[in-house]
Amino acid sequence: MNQNIVFSPSPYSKYMREAQVDLGNGIQLHIEMGGNPEHPCILLIMGLGGQLILWPDFFCKSLIDQGFCVIRFDNRDIGLSSKITTEPQNSHHLLSMMARFSVGLKNHGAPYTLEDMADDVGLLLDKLDISQCNLIGASMGGMIAQIVAAKYPEKISKLGLLFTSNNQPLLPAPGIKQLKLMISKRPTQEDEIIRQNVQLYKIIGSPNYINVEEIRLFARKAYFRSYYPNGVLHQLLAILCTGSLLKWDQQIQQPTLVIHGASDRLLPPKHGRVVAKAIKAAKFELIAGMGHDIPPHFIPQLSGLFAHHFKP
Fold first, then answer.
1. Alpha-carbon separation of residue 302 from 29, 71, 282, 293 (angstroms)
2. How far is CA 301 from the centre of its chain?
3. Which parts of the chain register pLDDT below 50?
4. N or C of the chain: less Cβ packing under 10 Å?
5. 51 domain-assigned
């Protein structure tokens, strides 16, 4: 671990310490690290619009307790990392771009792509002096992780993917309700933002494990930590302008575990199955009752599966 990077206690977790890392490409990433730096490292990559605090503390602590050093970070354009300050240029074309994306046609006009976000991860590992680590990516973070594993094979020892996709053409589309809420105009008032978060988790979360009060508390915490809806649109454009990841999947050689929720109403389980099929010798686990979220009920099972997969 780079001794020149100064960590301080995280205000969001008693298990983690935080720091700002300048990648040298115009981007600064805000990171948190927990556990013994001498232990094998797991780097966590969150999905669309998700700040690092969306990785539950209980999940991070479970991995730390199983002998790992855990690092989570805000992707560019989200949380306390660098923001792209320009207005999204193609937001009024989202539906047509999604239609093109679903059948494998190319889109253009994003300020950056998932490949640029994968390069951020490669640079972050270099800046932290981490020669090799394990990787877990969730949703869009899983898309980024697929590119990282293929593009930087020497940096990634094993790969874990959680409710993600490789965006190959003709996969089942997200549910209409889920999609409309995710691309709808972002509110500006705190109460409206919290209400929208509750609505979203009710339709993408694990159906029998929706805790409205916990969702409200988390949404309020995320709002005060950083609220930047343009970043969400930029990241969505990055997905739409990157397209299919099949070419990257076919290059991945690392042992890979793909986990998907049987009740995922945002990315139906077939998305996870095709990822596992595309990556050589990947293992696939379908979790009954789990949606597109990480509720406390599933954390012992999820952390156990990943820890077992990452053990030397």
1. 26, 17, 17, 11
2. 19
3. none
4. C
5. yes
Structural domain containing residue 139: 8-310
Four-residue CA torsion sign, 181, 183, 184, 189: positive
Query: Taking Cα atoms as reference points, which of 124, 138, 133, 123 lies closest to residue 153?
Result: 133
Tally of domains in the chain: 1
114-150 exposure pattern, b = at least 16 Cβ within 10 A, e = fewer: bbbbbbbbbbbbebbebeebbbbbbbbbbbbbbbbbb
2 in any annotated domain: no
> In 18-36, which positions are buried (b, 16+ CB within 10 angstroms) versus exposed (e)?
bbebebeeebbbbbbbbbe
* Structural domain includes residue 132: yes
Give the per-residue pLDDT at 67: 97
- Which residues have CB under 8 Å from 127's CB, separation 6+? 2, 5, 21, 22, 23, 24
Partners of 156 in the β-ladder = 133
Amino acid identity of residue 162, one-letter, is L
What pLDDT was estimated at residue 178? 73
CA 71 – CA 33 distance, rounded (Å): 4
**Residue the block writes with tokens 């099949």:** 246
Instruction: Report residue 35 as tokens.
Output: 């556990």
* CA angle centred on 298, ends 137 and 58, rounded to 5°: 75
What is the domain-level CATH number for residue 130?
3.40.50.1820
Which tokens in the block code for residue 137?
A: 């990516």
Contact 310, 134 (CB under 8 A): yes
53 assigned to some structural domain = yes
Residues written for the chain? 312
Q: Which two tokens stand for residue 82?
A: 């660098």
- Residue 102 · residue 94 · CB < 8 Å: no
Dist. CA 222–CA 228, nearest whole Å: 10
Edge-to-edge, what's the strand order for the sheet holding 156-162?
8-9, 17-22, 28-34, 69-73, 41-45, 133-138, 156-162, 256-261, 283-287
